[in-house]
Amino acid sequence: MPPALAIFVKTPGLSPIKTRLAASIGQARAEEFFRLSCRIVANAARCARELRGGDLQIYWAVAESEALTHPDWKDFPTIHQGDGDLGERLDLVYTSLLARHSSVTIIGADAPQILGQDICDAIAWNVSDHGFVFGPATDGGFWSVTGSLSVPRSIWIETPWSTSSTLSALEVRIVNLGKTVVRLRELCDVDTMEDLARLKSAMDGIDMLAAQRMKNFLDQIE
Protein backbone atom coordinates (compact mmCIF):
# COMPACT_ATOMS: atom_id res chain seq x y z
CA MET A 1 0.00 0.00 0.00
CA PRO A 2 1.16 3.59 -0.62
CA PRO A 3 2.19 5.90 2.23
CA ALA A 4 -0.69 7.60 4.05
CA LEU A 5 -1.03 11.29 4.87
CA ALA A 6 -3.60 12.29 7.50
CA ILE A 7 -4.53 15.96 7.96
CA PHE A 8 -5.95 16.56 11.46
CA VAL A 9 -8.96 18.90 11.39
CA LYS A 10 -11.92 20.10 13.43
CA THR A 11 -15.15 21.18 11.79
CA PRO A 12 -16.22 24.83 12.17
CA GLY A 13 -19.65 25.02 13.72
CA LEU A 14 -19.28 21.66 15.43
CA SER A 15 -16.13 22.22 17.52
CA PRO A 16 -14.39 25.32 18.88
CA ILE A 17 -11.80 26.46 16.33
CA LYS A 18 -8.49 28.17 17.23
CA THR A 19 -9.80 29.39 20.57
CA ARG A 20 -6.74 31.46 21.53
CA LEU A 21 -6.74 33.18 18.16
CA ALA A 22 -10.51 33.68 18.36
CA ALA A 23 -10.07 35.52 21.66
CA SER A 24 -8.13 38.18 19.74
CA ILE A 25 -9.86 38.37 16.34
CA GLY A 26 -13.28 36.84 17.01
CA GLN A 27 -14.65 33.39 16.28
CA ALA A 28 -15.82 34.20 12.75
CA ARG A 29 -12.37 35.44 11.71
CA ALA A 30 -10.66 32.50 13.41
CA GLU A 31 -12.87 30.08 11.48
CA GLU A 32 -12.15 31.98 8.26
CA PHE A 33 -8.42 31.60 8.89
CA PHE A 34 -8.82 27.89 9.60
CA ARG A 35 -10.79 27.23 6.41
CA LEU A 36 -8.20 29.11 4.32
CA SER A 37 -5.40 27.20 6.02
CA CYS A 38 -7.12 23.87 5.36
CA ARG A 39 -7.35 24.70 1.66
CA ILE A 40 -3.65 25.58 1.46
CA VAL A 41 -2.60 22.44 3.34
CA ALA A 42 -4.87 20.35 1.09
CA ASN A 43 -3.14 21.87 -1.95
CA ALA A 44 0.25 20.99 -0.45
CA ALA A 45 -0.97 17.42 0.03
CA ARG A 46 -2.06 17.20 -3.60
CA CYS A 47 1.29 18.61 -4.68
CA ALA A 48 3.09 15.94 -2.64
CA ARG A 49 0.97 13.24 -4.24
CA GLU A 50 1.81 14.60 -7.70
CA LEU A 51 5.54 14.80 -6.87
CA ARG A 52 5.37 11.15 -5.81
CA GLY A 53 3.67 10.13 -9.04
CA GLY A 54 0.37 9.42 -7.30
CA ASP A 55 1.97 7.23 -4.63
CA LEU A 56 0.29 8.85 -1.61
CA GLN A 57 -3.14 8.28 -0.03
CA ILE A 58 -4.50 11.44 1.60
CA TYR A 59 -7.08 11.50 4.40
CA TRP A 60 -8.84 14.10 6.45
CA ALA A 61 -8.60 12.96 10.10
CA VAL A 62 -11.81 14.53 11.42
CA ALA A 63 -12.44 15.26 15.10
CA GLU A 64 -16.22 14.75 15.01
CA SER A 65 -17.77 11.43 14.00
CA GLU A 66 -20.87 13.23 12.71
CA ALA A 67 -18.73 15.31 10.32
CA LEU A 68 -17.12 12.47 8.37
CA THR A 69 -19.40 13.29 5.43
CA HIS A 70 -19.33 17.07 5.95
CA PRO A 71 -18.93 19.11 2.72
CA ASP A 72 -15.76 20.73 4.07
CA TRP A 73 -14.03 17.33 3.89
CA LYS A 74 -15.27 16.08 0.55
CA ASP A 75 -11.86 16.31 -1.18
CA PHE A 76 -10.32 13.22 0.46
CA PRO A 77 -11.49 10.10 2.31
CA THR A 78 -12.12 10.72 6.01
CA ILE A 79 -11.09 8.90 9.15
CA HIS A 80 -12.36 9.65 12.65
CA GLN A 81 -9.77 10.81 15.17
CA GLY A 82 -11.62 9.06 17.98
CA ASP A 83 -12.14 10.36 21.50
CA GLY A 84 -9.74 11.49 24.21
CA ASP A 85 -6.82 13.87 24.32
CA LEU A 86 -4.39 14.52 21.48
CA GLY A 87 -2.16 11.58 22.39
CA GLU A 88 -5.03 9.12 22.30
CA ARG A 89 -6.23 10.48 18.96
CA LEU A 90 -2.76 10.40 17.42
CA ASP A 91 -2.35 6.80 18.54
CA LEU A 92 -5.67 5.76 17.02
CA VAL A 93 -5.08 7.43 13.64
CA TYR A 94 -1.43 6.37 13.38
CA THR A 95 -2.11 2.76 14.37
CA SER A 96 -5.20 2.43 12.18
CA LEU A 97 -3.51 3.77 9.06
CA LEU A 98 -0.25 1.89 9.63
CA ALA A 99 -2.22 -1.36 9.41
CA ARG A 100 -3.12 -0.41 5.83
CA HIS A 101 -0.18 1.64 4.58
CA SER A 102 3.60 1.44 4.33
CA SER A 103 4.07 4.59 6.41
CA VAL A 104 1.94 7.29 8.03
CA THR A 105 2.46 11.05 8.03
CA ILE A 106 0.23 13.15 10.27
CA ILE A 107 0.08 16.93 9.86
CA GLY A 108 -2.04 19.70 11.29
CA ALA A 109 -4.06 22.14 9.23
CA ASP A 110 -2.85 25.29 10.99
CA ALA A 111 0.62 25.69 9.43
CA PRO A 112 -0.17 26.93 5.91
CA GLN A 113 3.53 27.36 5.06
CA ILE A 114 3.69 23.58 4.49
CA LEU A 115 4.87 22.71 1.00
CA GLY A 116 4.35 19.54 -0.95
CA GLN A 117 8.11 19.04 -0.89
CA ASP A 118 8.07 19.08 2.92
CA ILE A 119 5.72 16.12 2.91
CA CYS A 120 7.79 14.30 0.32
CA ASP A 121 10.95 14.94 2.36
CA ALA A 122 9.33 13.42 5.46
CA ILE A 123 8.36 10.27 3.59
CA ALA A 124 11.77 9.98 1.90
CA TRP A 125 13.69 10.31 5.17
CA ASN A 126 11.44 7.72 6.77
CA VAL A 127 11.98 5.26 3.94
CA SER A 128 15.75 5.75 4.10
CA ASP A 129 16.24 5.01 7.80
CA HIS A 130 12.89 3.63 9.05
CA GLY A 131 12.98 5.94 12.04
CA PHE A 132 10.61 8.78 12.86
CA VAL A 133 10.62 12.13 11.08
CA PHE A 134 9.30 15.26 12.80
CA GLY A 135 8.53 18.71 11.52
CA PRO A 136 9.30 20.94 14.52
CA ALA A 137 7.10 23.92 15.36
CA THR A 138 8.36 27.18 16.84
CA ASP A 139 6.28 26.67 20.00
CA GLY A 140 8.07 23.44 20.94
CA GLY A 141 5.54 21.09 19.38
CA PHE A 142 5.52 19.66 15.88
CA TRP A 143 3.62 20.27 12.66
CA SER A 144 4.19 16.75 11.32
CA VAL A 145 5.20 13.26 12.36
CA THR A 146 6.05 10.41 10.00
CA GLY A 147 6.68 6.78 10.93
CA SER A 148 6.55 3.29 9.48
CA LEU A 149 7.05 1.29 12.68
CA SER A 150 4.52 0.47 15.38
CA VAL A 151 5.13 1.99 18.81
CA PRO A 152 3.53 1.34 22.20
CA ARG A 153 0.37 3.32 22.88
CA SER A 154 2.10 4.80 25.94
CA ILE A 155 4.46 6.74 23.66
CA TRP A 156 1.54 8.88 22.53
CA ILE A 157 -0.59 9.09 25.63
CA GLU A 158 2.21 9.80 28.15
CA THR A 159 3.75 12.67 26.16
CA PRO A 160 2.99 16.10 27.70
CA TRP A 161 1.06 17.99 25.03
CA SER A 162 0.87 21.74 24.40
CA THR A 163 4.14 22.57 26.17
CA SER A 164 7.40 24.10 25.01
CA SER A 165 9.07 20.68 25.39
CA THR A 166 6.44 18.46 23.71
CA LEU A 167 8.58 17.48 20.73
CA SER A 168 11.72 16.95 22.80
CA ALA A 169 9.84 14.71 25.22
CA LEU A 170 8.34 12.66 22.39
CA GLU A 171 11.72 12.31 20.68
CA VAL A 172 13.29 10.99 23.88
CA ARG A 173 10.59 8.33 24.13
CA ILE A 174 11.15 7.32 20.50
CA VAL A 175 14.94 7.15 20.89
CA ASN A 176 14.57 5.07 24.05
CA LEU A 177 12.82 2.47 21.90
CA GLY A 178 16.01 2.21 19.82
CA LYS A 179 14.61 4.17 16.89
CA THR A 180 16.22 7.10 15.09
CA VAL A 181 14.75 10.60 14.86
CA VAL A 182 15.10 13.12 12.00
CA ARG A 183 13.93 16.74 12.04
CA LEU A 184 12.66 18.71 9.03
CA ARG A 185 12.60 22.50 8.78
CA GLU A 186 10.88 24.43 11.56
CA LEU A 187 7.49 26.03 10.87
CA CYS A 188 5.08 28.16 12.87
CA ASP A 189 1.63 26.77 13.51
CA VAL A 190 -0.86 29.53 14.16
CA ASP A 191 -2.47 29.86 17.58
CA THR A 192 -2.13 33.57 18.43
CA MET A 193 -2.07 37.05 16.87
CA GLU A 194 1.74 36.99 17.10
CA ASP A 195 1.74 33.81 15.02
CA LEU A 196 -0.35 35.55 12.36
CA ALA A 197 2.27 38.28 12.10
CA ARG A 198 5.03 35.69 11.60
CA LEU A 199 2.91 33.85 9.05
CA LYS A 200 2.58 36.83 6.73
CA SER A 201 6.24 36.87 5.69
CA ALA A 202 6.36 33.07 5.51
CA MET A 203 3.55 33.05 2.92
CA ASP A 204 5.46 35.21 0.43
CA GLY A 205 7.04 32.27 -1.37
CA ILE A 206 3.83 30.28 -1.80
CA ASP A 207 2.29 31.00 -5.19
CA MET A 208 -1.27 29.70 -5.39
CA LEU A 209 -4.76 31.18 -5.31
CA ALA A 210 -5.49 29.92 -1.78
CA ALA A 211 -2.24 31.45 -0.54
CA GLN A 212 -3.17 34.81 -2.07
CA ARG A 213 -6.49 34.66 -0.27
CA MET A 214 -4.62 34.02 2.97
CA LYS A 215 -2.37 37.02 2.31
CA ASN A 216 -5.45 39.18 1.70
CA PHE A 217 -6.94 37.89 4.97
CA LEU A 218 -3.74 38.73 6.86
CA ASP A 219 -3.73 42.25 5.37
CA GLN A 220 -7.26 42.77 6.67
CA ILE A 221 -6.32 41.63 10.17
CA GLU A 222 -3.61 44.30 10.59
Write the layout of secondary structure elements.
Elements: E1 4-9, H1 19-25, H2 27-51, E2 57-62, E3 78-80, H3 86-98, E4 104-108, H4 116-129, E5 132-136, E6 142-147, H5 153-157, H6 166-176, E7 181-183, H7 193-202, H8 209-221
Helix pairs in contact: 1-2, 2-4, 2-8
How many independent structural domains? 1
Strand content: 15-25%
What is the average of the pLDDT values?
92
* CATH homologous superfamily grouping: Spore Coat Polysaccharide Biosynthesis Protein SpsA, Chain A
Q: Name the CATH architecture.
A: Alpha-Beta Complex
Strand arrangement across the biggest beta sheet? 3-2-1-4-6-5-7
Low-confidence stretches: none
How many helices in DSSP terms? Answer: 8
CATH C-level class is Alpha Beta
End-to-end separation: 46 Å
| Structural class assignment | alpha/beta
Radius of gyration, Cα only, in angstroms? Answer: 16 Å
**Any idea of the CATH topology?**
Spore Coat Polysaccharide Biosynthesis Protein SpsA, Chain A
